[in-house]
Amino acid sequence: DAGITQSPRHKVTETGTPVTLRCHQTENHRYMYWYRQDPGHGLRLIHYSYGVKDTDKGEVSDGYSVSRSKTEDFLLTLESATSSQTSVYFCAISVPGQFVTYEQYFGPGTRLTVT
Amino acid sequence: DQQVKQNSPSLSVQEGRISILNCDYTNSMFDYFLWYKKYPAEGPTFLISISSIKDKNEDGRFTVFLNKSAKHLSLHIVPSQPGDSAVYFCAARRETSGSRLTFGEGTQLTVNP
Questions:
Q1: How far apart (Å, rounded) are the C-alpha atoms in residues B34 and B40?
Q2: A with B: how many residue pairs have Cβ under 8 Å apart?
Q3: Could you tell me if B94 and B102 are in contact, meaning their C-beta atoms sit under 8 angstroms apart?
Q4: Are A54 and A113 within 8 A, CB to CB?
Q5: Average pLDDT for consecutive 10-residue bins of chain B (113 residues)?
Q6: Which among A4, A20, A63, B55 is most buried, taking Cβ atoms within 10 Å?
């Protein structure tokens, strides 16, 4: 258990509204990621962070922004939600160690529906 | 450009038999490969991994094989159990991308009792 929680777990929102998803971890790991999962596409990286205020874009970052003001929290914001952003969103952390295995540990996910 | 591809969206096997899940990649810069399992309404969980300097890694019922010349990896589950029914994702790490991973589309495995 990597101590990752995501909130909310489910959300329905209307097109054009802003939405913020929260990822919280309890073990102060530096590396955090946001993915979206869609049928036929697997998991695609939206944004990632290597530390407080150190974030960068992933492969599908358009329409999304992130913030990391504390080690334990990584926020994903949809400034103006669109129906194409209906998806399941996963937060993940990685724990580089002595033997680098690049494993990432995932939260339970947030199912977002944009109507 | 799907650099990691799982061509079979689904696979069905009988309990006790072998399950073989396949994954192909196009980027020769990938140097580490991982398999994840995902149950409905849960996050993916790490299953097994392999470095590009190896061609096989085994952990209990799970074995991953890597064929670098063919840019192909496979996950073997022997014997398959009904609890193995899940979506399986392969993932790859590129040398120049730090800890970021590229995932395939996933394969739904169903193990029938």
A1: 20
A2: 57
A3: yes
A4: no
A5: 90 98 95 95 94 95 97 98 98 87 96 96
A6: A4
